[in-house]
Write a structure and sequence with these properties.
The chain has 104 residues and is α+β, with helices and mostly antiparallel strands. Helices cover 41% and strands 31% of the residues. Helix 1 packs across helix 2 and helix 1 runs antiparallel to helix 3. It is globular, with a radius of gyration of 14 Å.
Length: 104
C-alpha cells in the first residue's frame, strides 16, 4: 500500500477560489481515476495551502491510474487550465506505512 500526500501552495488569497473550483469541476473527474482518502486546507503554519491524500496498491497502480487521469480531457482541458494558474508550487510525497501503522 502506498499513500500519496500532495501539497499545493496557492497564490495568496486564492484558497477559496481553488477549493470551489476543485469541488465543482475537479472532484468528480479525479475521483473517477484516483482513490481519495482526504482533502484539507491549512489555518496554521504555512498558509495558502491545500493537502490531499490518495491511496494506491503499489507504484504500478499509481502509474496506471494517473495515466488514465491525464488522458481524461475533462481533467486536462476542463479543470487544469482553470486551476493551475492559481497554484504557486506543488509537492508530492509517497508514503509507505510501517507494519504497526493503523490501516486507513
Amino acid at each position: 500500500m502506498i499513500h500519496e500526500l500532495r501539497i499545493y501552495t496557492l497564490h495568496v488569497g486564492k484558497v477559496p477560489e481553488y477549493v470551489k473550483l476543485f469541488e465543482e469541476k475537479g472532484l468528480h473527474v479525479i475521483t473517477r481515476h484516483l482513490p481519495l482518502i482526504g482533502w484539507w486546507t491549512s489555518d496554521t503554519g504555512e498558509l495558502n495551502r491545500v493537502f490531499h491524500m490518495w491511496r494506491y496498491v503499489d507504484m504500478v497502480d499509481r502509474t496506471t491510474r494517473r495515466k488514465r487521469l491525464y488522458e481524461d480531457e475533462e481533467w486536462t482541458k476542463g479543470f487544469v487550465p482553470l486551476a493551475f494558474p492559481l497554484i504557486d508550487r506543488q509537492e508530492s510525497h509517497l508514503l509507505s506505512p510501517t507494519t504497526f501503522s493503523p490501516l486507513i
